Structures are given as C-alpha cells and as structure tokens.
Amino acid sequence: MDNTTYIALSRMDAEQRAMSVLANNIANGSTAGFKSGHVQFADYLSRLKDGPHAPGENPEVYVQDRATYRDFTQGALTQTGNPLDIAITGEGFFSVMTAQGVRLTRNGRFQRLSDGSVTDAAGHALLDRTGQPIVLRPQDRTVSIASDGTLSTENGVAAEIGLVRVANNHDLHGEGSELFRASTPTTQMDVKELRQGMLEGSNVNMMSETTNLVELQRDFQITANLVESESTRRQNAIDKLTQTQS
Amino acid sequence: MRSLDIAGTGMQAQQTNVEVIANNIANMTTTGFKRRRPEFQDLIYQDMRRVGTMSSDSGTLVPAGAQVGLGVRTAGIYRINVQGTLEQTNNSLDLAIEGPGYFQITLPSGEYAYTRDGTFSLSDTGQIVTADGYPVSPGITVPNNAQTITVDQTGQVQVTISGQTQSMVVGQLQMATFQNENGLAAMGQNLFTETQSSGNAITGTGQSVGFGDIRQGYVEESNVNVVTEITDLITAQRAYEMNSKVITASDEMLQTLTGLK
C-alpha cells in the first residue's frame, strides 16, 4: 500500500481512540466529581533517515493522538442533604489516603465508618490540613462544615479538611474510582470554598459530546471513503496499465 | 472496539440508576422509607502514553499522557437519611421519631432489627408489636383493661386503667443509633440489621443526647420527593440514550472498517 492509505489509516486509528475517550465521558455522565477527558491530535512528521528535510521537500504527515487532557472546569452542584457530602466550588482537591499513598479527588461523597473515620466510598480516609486522617469521636453527632473547611460538631472544632492544589492539573494521573495521582508536589490551600450537603456532579457536557460524536463518526466515514477511492484509483491504474501492455 | 464496551458500562450504570429511582418511587408512601441514591465511579485508565516518560522521537519529556478510561461502575447505593415529614394519625400507637435514632425490634430468631417505622399495634397478648407482629425490644405489655396509652417524648409508655386515677408506667421504648447509619443492612419490611460497617448499636431513650424525640400519634412519611425523582429519571433516561448512541456510532464505525477494501 502507499502512503495515502497509511496516512488515512493513521487518522482512523486515532479517531477510534478518540471515540473511546468520548464514550468514557458519556458513560461517566452521572459520576460525581468526574472530569471529562479530551484528545489532542497532532501531526506526526515522518522522519527521514538521513537527517532533516531539504528545503522545499514535503514531509509526509501522519495523524497521532498526542495526548489526552482533562477539562477541570467545575461540575454542576446538586443538593443531597447528606452532612458528609462536600462540594468544592473552586480550585483544589480533597486528599485521601490509599494503600498506595495519598491520592486526590473531587468526589466529595464521604461517609463516617463505625470507627468514626471519615472516608470515601472505597474506605480511603479523608485527610486534614496536616495530612492526618479525620476521625470523629463517638459523642460527635451533628457534623457541620464551614466553607473554609472547618469541621465542627456539638463538641467544638473536630478537624480542618485539607484541600490541595497541584501546580499543573495536567500532571494528574487518573487511576479510576475518581482518584488522581499527582506527579508533582502538592500544596495545601489556605482559601477554600466548600459546600456541605452538596455534591459536584460530572462536568461532562452532553451537548458538546453529542456534536463531537457526530463529527467524529462523519470524519471517520470520510476518511474511510478516501481509503476506498484511493484503492479504486490504484485498481484502475493497474487495469489501464495492463491493457496498454497487452 | 473499546468504545462499545465503555458505552456498555454506561448503559448498565444508568440501568441501575433507573432501578434505584423506580424503587424510590414505588416506596414513596412507605412509612419511614429513606430514598436511595446510586454513586458511580470511573473505572481504571489504560495508558497509551504515560505522563513523564521520555518521548522516543524527540527525547523530551511527555508533558501530558494519553489515558483512555474504561467506563463506569456503581460504587454503592446510599440512603439519604433526611427526616421525612410527620403525618398526624391520632392513633395512640403510631410513633414517629423526630431526629436521629431507630426503634429496636426483636426478630423471631432472637436477633435485633431496627426501624423508623413506628406504626405499632397490640398483639393478642397485649405486647407492643410492629405491623408484622415483631415485638419491640425490650418487650412492653399493655394490660388488657387499659383505657388509654400515652407515650411521652422519651418513649416512656404509660397506661390508665379504668377505676384508677393514677396512670401506670408499663415500659420504656429503647432506641438505637449507629456510628455509620449507611452501614445498616436493609432486610425489607422497613427493617434494618446491624453490620460490621454500621458498628454496634448505641442504645438510649428519646430526647437524650444524640437521639430524636418520639411523637405519639404521628408516623414518619417516606422522604422521597417526587419532583426530584422525576427529574432524576429524565436525566437517567437521557444518559442511557446517549450511551446507546455511542454504541450505534461505534457499531457504524466498525461496519465502515469491515467494509473497507
């Protein structure tokens, strides 16, 4: 096959992966704290073995899905009334302790376990400002959380919920279960905007996902048509050439 | 094609969502029922290009990786333990809890169960029992010549007997709370049993610290809000539709691929 077909196929290959990212966004349309992913396409210059291109020489360009990045815009807030549902209405991430170390999350659905510790759905402890797990005492009944992260009960202040900031949100590595691993150091935030009894929904924009879906599908079709017409053109060329020969 | 499977997990999640909503709506007139809400989580991610690795062609660090998530799963279904509205019935053995706490019930097996449904009645032997005939724990027996039954806000049960001027205390209703209410296992019939994750029952009486008040002549209605459920249902239905669109689109793409020559 020639390069026209390869270039077109590289595009179709990248589009298939883009479709997976889009499917994952739509599948997580009701996942609290989910941040949608997007694909960044890039041209991929084929490199010649013998160094840089000569002036005027056209390199062949392949498509490559260079990276996926996440859109960290705020998701819509919904009222749940659960005292340990906490939504972040600005920057920052909650930090939780997993067996593999500290992980970050925007999913603010926390619960109180029988030992008094405040954890996420998987039982990872929510950390306070100093990086220690937040534990409530048996006599603590009513939990109220101020917007600055102060968690108090009828027995006074119990903890200060920690919120961390990452220098570059793109350094966050999604691990599933709404958890991110930061590959760069994180810093505790001083100004926090928390809302008790609310949850941050997924920030997937169904409207733009739908248009992307249609666009992607049509694009795929057009590229497939290109591959097909290229094949026909070559077939015709071969036919014509063989006719002249005979 | 990965997107087919991913959208499949999305449809499954929305199906669960609709099932939970259906159960909430079905129980909108169930006494003491607490609405449920499913919680979803994204599945693991597959790395196409890992963040922070060296790019093979230019020798620079990859600034952002390429990660493809593999869909969604149901992480749990939680009860929203918000107080339901109290409805007046004037029935002396209809009791509602205003605030935290559960009534403690003895099951035929001898184990305890807990409920917010306080529609009690008397058994043939005069015991205070639930609608299913399970006695409250500790058991309270009302003499058969009792004229009136009064339950105060702490749960103390008093009766007056004809011919006597003084009322008589026949028992004290016990209540229970838990460190982790959501850890209770629902067993149907408006009953819950304790589990390892709920922690042991902390018992007490009405109006004491950490317990609600007992209101005689009232029942606690379910806390299902029809408007919320309907809007949630519409959202779930649309989300389901979107996922099925992804499946159709992926299928068409596959068809295009297989048709290539």
TrEMBL record, chain A:
Can you name the source organism?
A: Acetobacter aceti NBRC 14818
- Domain Flagellar hook protein FlgE/F/G-like D1: from-to ranges: 87-152
The UniProt gene name for this protein comes to flgF
Superkingdom of the source species: Bacteria
Similarity comment text for this entry: Belongs to the flagella basal body rod proteins family.
Query: Which InterPro entries does this UniProt record tie to the protein?
Result: Flag_bb_rod_N (IPR001444), Flagellar_basal_body_rod_CS (IPR019776), Flagellar_FlgE/F/G (IPR020013), Flg_bb/hook_C_dom (IPR010930), FlgE/F/G-like (IPR037925), FlgF (IPR012836), LlgE_F_G-like_D1 (IPR053967)
Which PROSITE patterns does this entry report, sorted A to Z? FLAGELLA_BB_ROD
Subunit and partners: The basal body constitutes a major portion of the flagellar organelle and consists of five rings (E,L,P,S, and M) mounted on a central rod. The rod consists of about 26 subunits of FlgG in the distal portion, and FlgB, FlgC and FlgF are thought to build up the proximal portion of the rod with about 6 subunits each.
Quote the cellular component terms of the Gene Ontology held in the record.
Answer: bacterial-type flagellum basal body, rod
Q: What is its main location?
A: other
Q: What is this protein called?
A: Flagellar basal-body rod protein FlgF
User: Can you give the residue ranges of the Flagellar basal-body/hook protein C-terminal domain?
Assistant: 195-238
Is Transmembrane helix included in the keywords of this UniProt record? Answer: no
Sorted UniProt keywords:
Bacterial flagellum, Cell projection, Cilium, Flagellum
Query: Which residue intervals define the domain Flagellar basal body rod protein N-terminal in the entry?
Result: 6-35
Gene Ontology process terms (BP): bacterial-type flagellum-dependent swarming motility
Q: Where in the cell is it found?
A: Bacterial flagellum basal body
Q: Does the keyword DNA repair apply?
A: no
